[in-house]
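anyone seen this seq b4? input:
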Amino acid sequence: MPLKNSRSLDTYQAKLAGRSDYKPFSKEDVDKVHARRDAALKRFDNSFKGYYGWAVPLFPAKEHITFEKLEELAHLDHLRPFYDWATHIGVHASSRAARLNVLTRGDEKFKLSGPTNAGLADPAGSALVSLLQVTTSLLVRGRPITGDPRRVVVLKALLQLEREAGDAFLAAHQRLEEKEAKFQRTGAKRAKKRG
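predicted toks r here
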């Protein structure tokens, strides 16, 4: 990804290099990255500059390409609500994230901070399905299945693995919920004894 590397390098050099212990990259290193970027632009045109420049041939000329448009093109736009939900649970600093990242223990509420395995089943299941879809697409469209029955066997095996992994994530989620419920019951009993 020479363009992304070039953009990141330029930002680093302009905003961070020379501050504290952040050393700037040498002119030689910068020139190498810029040469790779320029070669990519020469080969693929200036439209390749954007974040989704690789997808320019898939859209009408001069159309602004977004992740949502790529989802629509792939007929996966029905999954947008799950993407929105996932990105607001501790990823983006929004009021929704602040509201969703709350743990209730007894009568008290806590803001979650740091990593947690709570609520992992849904995003893990979605990641498994996405990985299966991408792999299936590559197996089917990358090399036609006709004449090679092994690919069908591989696809069936991947589908089975996706199901088993999804079941394992769900089972782990249920165990975690059971532990939390037990913790809540124990805490309620202790509070009752004290009160």
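The beta strands are 102-105, 108-111. The first strand starts at residue 102 and ends at 105. kinda curious what u guys think
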